[in-house]
Amino acid sequence: MDRNAALAELEAHPYWPLRVCAETDELGEPAYKTELFFTPGALNVELAKTVCQGCPVMLACRQYALVWENEGVWGGLSPDERRAERRGQRKRRARLAQQAGARPKPVSNWKPSPAQATLLKVLAKQPDLRAAAVEMDRPFPNVQWVYSQMCKQLGFHQDELSVPEVLERANSRLGAAPSTPAPVPLKDAA
Q1: pTM of this prediction?
Q2: What are the b/e assignments for 170-182, b being 16+ CB within 10 Å?
Q3: Average pLDDT, the chain
Q4: Engineered SS bond to 117: which of 112, 130, 180, 184, CB 3.0-4.6 Å?
């Protein structure tokens, strides 16, 4: 679909005549000037986004703008917000394509790197990556990268399993006992 066809589809929306940005006052003058939506500046952007919030066409307008528009406020999103949303969509598509494709091949003689070993110890106490980053005094993206590399080496994608399941897989690969201590037998009192 080209841009003109996409715009025609947006204009065919049943509520298009009721869009807030096209409202007029009692004299037939536009209630909101087009410049409001296309003039840079934090105040103008916020005012335009506020106008969009009550619009019955906001979501359709947003979908159109995510594909076709780089300037102005459309569907309640500024140009920067649309760029960020596009990046997020590309990352999600790439991750889903990766997960749909071949699984990572597990390393046959896997031994954790020093960073992975430290991460495993910290996660055994608190199975949360953000808490682990704080405890390890490392930036979260670095800890997340170590975790993702460990998951790939173990043969799965990092989003497939929960942290406790990853710990269980890692411990089983290392031949370690489960993280829960075995019960201590009671001695007979003589």
Answers
A1: 0.51
A2: beebeeeeeeeee
A3: 85
A4: 112
